[in-house]
Automatic annotation (TrEMBL):
One GO CC term, this protein: plasma membrane
Gene3D superfamilies for the chain: ATP synthase, F0 complex, subunit A (1.20.120.220)
Record protein name field: ATP synthase subunit a, chloroplastic
Organism per entry: Tetrabaena socialis
UniProt keyword Hydrolase present: yes
Location relative to the cell: Membrane; Plastid, Chloroplast thylakoid membrane
């Protein structure tokens, strides 16, 4: 069996499988991902359908989010190259943020499906690994598009004997990104689920509020690290 397919089989709990092109995919992840994308698209439409030079109403909110992401990109990537990466970092941040909050706030578990249960898309290791791999491809693309093949000189700097360590570092970046996000979101939902089952409803509320806060922090951490990796790839090392 293909070892990559074995890794893709890593899962927690039961899943609602769909057959697409001869492959099994986690149907509940696609359903909740579409919900997340629908929420983002709706909010974007509401905030930008009637743009004004002096923003008011919901346009204030969307411009606040845009400015926040621009500042994040500028801080992590640098003045010269940050602008072209704002859409990427914004997409990553908003998808993870809305995914995490949808898992914490929407009553997914009240919706019955043939097998498994609905949860935040980031509660599935396949989603977080996909986000981490997209980030890895992005910072390789950023470095190679700016420096050409000279980008790979970084692997033998400051000394050639550091080559294995520098290569290993690039392999561990997507692993740390994916497992950090997956582990935190899964742990939060498991803790809340156990507390709701064991004690009255009022007791888990502080834990749920803490989970909402940490969910936002996880989206910020992922986007910040993605920006930092891209910034490292495009930085000039002298």
């Amino acid at each position: 069996m293909n070892p990559l397919l074995e890794i893709a089989e890593v899962s927690v709990g039961q899943h609602y499988y769909w057959e697409l092109g001869g492959y099994q995919v986690h149907g509940q992840v696609l359903i909740t991902s579409w919900v997340v994308l629908g929420i983002i698209a709706t909010l974007s439409f509401l905030g930008n359908r009637e743009l004004k030079s002096t923003p008011d109403g919901f346009q204030n909110f969307t411009e606040l989010v845009t400015e926040f992401i621009r500042d994040l990109a500028k801080t992590q990537i640098g003045e010269e190259d940050y602008l072209k990466w704002v859409p990427f970092l914004g997409t990553i941040f908003l998808f993870i943020f809305v995914s995490n909050w949808s898992g914490a706030l929407l009553p997914y578990r009240l919706i019955e499906i043939p097998n498994g249960e609905l949860a935040a898309p980031t509660n599935d290791i396949n989603t977080t690994v996909a986000l981490a791999l997209i980030t890895s491809i992005s910072y390789f693309y950023a470095g190679i598009s700016k420096k050409g093949l000279g980008y790979f000189k970084r692997y033998v700097e400051p000394a050639a004997f550091l080559l294995p360590i520098n290569v290993l570092e690039d392999f561990t970046k997507p692993l740390s990104l994916s497992f950090r996000l997956f582990g935190n979101i899964l742990a939060d939902e498991l803790v809340v689920g156990v507390l709701v089952a064991l004690v009255p409803l009022v007791i888990p509320i502080p834990i749920m509020l803490l989970g909402i806060f940490t969910s936002a922090i996880q989206a910020l951490v992922f986007a910040t690290l993605a920006g930092a990796y891209i910034g490292e790839a495009v930085a000039d090392h002298h």
